[in-house]
Amino acid sequence: MHPVIAIDGPSGVGKGTVARALAAALGYRHVDTGAMYRAVAWRAQQLGLDLDDEGAVLSVAQAAVIDVDGSRVMIDGTDVSAAIRTPDIDRATTRVARLPQVRAELVARQRALAEQGPLVMEGRDIGTVVFPAAAVKIYLDASADERARRRACDPAHSAAQTQDLAHIAEAMQRRDENDRTRQASPLTIAADATVVDTTGVPASRVADEVLAIVRARVS
């Protein structure tokens, strides 16, 4: 298996920005695993499925051709990069991500990617479940206010830019609670992860700090 850098943490901590910078600096592939769950949720909604019907959603996940490479997300030949970054898909993804069999299907796909080349993989369970033996595990965190502000300014989540910070913070807190309490692969900090608090720190400086950690551990 090729080296894997695991970047975990809740929404709005800068996982995507840091992961992209790391991948570019190291020449690794960047994979946003959350986008895979979002794509499945989007496809299931398009088909009018009950998102709590595990068998039905699993069938979608098993049949789908999903390609996540950096910020581009494709499912069954359709570019859904923008379509999956909405509050509606946020809620749908939370429901889909709680389904153990769906997670098992996507985790298997994520692990298979490491056979193709080195990865910087971001998500919520990379260092704990997907790659517990990852070369480096980073857990990013930030204050609730900081995370809400970042989400409101994130062009990838254009719908959030029309909402007030209190509403965004409430939605993010609700999703965090769902992620931390789900039975399948809950959001937790790996025992051997390095925790980096990004509150008030420019993304470029966080990326530099994480890159220094990675280079010290990966030859």
Quick rundown:
By secondary structure, the protein is an alpha/beta fold. The protein has helices at 15-26, 33-46, 54-63, 87-97, 100-113, 126-130, 144-153, 165-181, 203-217, and strands spanning 4-8, 29-32, 66-69, 72-75, 78-79, 119-123, 136-141, 194-197. A hairpin with a 2-residue loop joins strand 3 (66-69) and strand 4 (72-75).
General description of the model:
The protein is an alpha/beta fold and 219 residues long. It has one domain (4-217): P-loop containing nucleotide triphosphate hydrolases (Rossmann fold), CATH 3.40.50.300. It has nine helices and eight strands. It has a five-stranded parallel β-sheet with strand order 2-6-1-7-8. A three-stranded antiparallel β-sheet has the order 3-4-5, covered by helices on one side. It starts with a strand and ends with a helix. The mean pLDDT is 91.
Helical proportion?
Answer: 40-55%
Largest sheet: 5 strands, parallel
- What is the CATH homologous superfamily assignment? P-loop containing nucleotide triphosphate hydrolases
Number of strands: 8
How many helices? The count is: 9
Q: What assembly state would you assign to the polypeptide chains in this entry?
A: single chain
Strand order of the largest sheet: 2-6-1-7-8
Radius of gyration: 16 Å
Order of helices and strands: EHEHHEEEHHEHEHHEH
Output mean pLDDT.
91
What is the CATH topology assignment? Rossmann fold
The level-1 CATH class: Alpha Beta
